Amino acid sequence: MAQVKTGVTMPASQAVQPAADTVAADTVAADSIAVDTLVAGEYPSMAIMESPVRSVEGQRETEEGFGMSWIYLVLTLLFTLAALRIKNSPRHFKAIWTDLFETRLRSNAFDDTVDETVLLILLNALWAASAGVLLWALIGMTAGYNPAWSLSVLLPQPVGIAVCMGVCAIYVTLITTAYWVVGNVFTDSRRAVLWVKGATASTAIGGGLSLPPAFLVLCYPSWTPKLLIIAASVFILCKILFIWKGFRIFFDHLSSWLLFLYYLCSLEIVPLILVYFGTVVLCIISP
Prior knowledge:
Layout lengths: L11 H4 L1 H20 L15 H37 L2 H11 L15 H26 L10 E2 L2 H30 L2 H31 L4 H27 L5 H28 E2 L2
Antiparallel strand pairs: 1-2
Helix pairs in contact: 3-5, 3-6, 4-7, 5-6, 5-7, 5-8, 6-7, 6-9, 7-8
């Protein structure tokens, strides 16, 4: 007897449906396996994103690095111009050294004279640039990390150094003008000229000696405390030599002691204090 097969015949479209469902399920399973195999801390290459904070910090470091190149350029250019001036005529350096110690009111006819004005301007500008770098380092050590300034922040380094350089240049200009005025008020013009020459000569020599510490402060910040002590020693020594020359020029009777003390306070001590605190105010801004 023949066997009769019973059942319902399915349409062709419905017959292939299980295969499609199987492919979809396999795809989902493969995706889940791929996701599960990702290691913590790893990200797909197409999904890497840079932190906005790091991006801003990197941009700031790049800008500061570019700005610092101008600081190095100014120091190098001033030193090169002064060195070439001395190389072309070594008598310029001898003339500056003479200006620092000479107290004769009349020059000797056999003296080897030379015009050192350009070299004095270059070396005084070099002192302003070097002193600006050192002043910025001093402010960073004292005001920058002082709890009293906890609500304020320092300017970016290139801007801060530029401000300090400008302040030092203004200080040199004003203090030299003050020497000229005081010298002409309290004595004759010849003594005033000798005194002003001594001031510019001491600053010029200090500019040449302050350049190495300024460069080292920029290159090796960890050496800053020792380098500031060396730079301060150079500055004090040059000031002592200049003050000694002024003492020899103006001291002629006992009452000169009182005027000498007034001079030390008004032209040597108070301006330095004003320069420091004024620069701190300019270099510290509210956050």
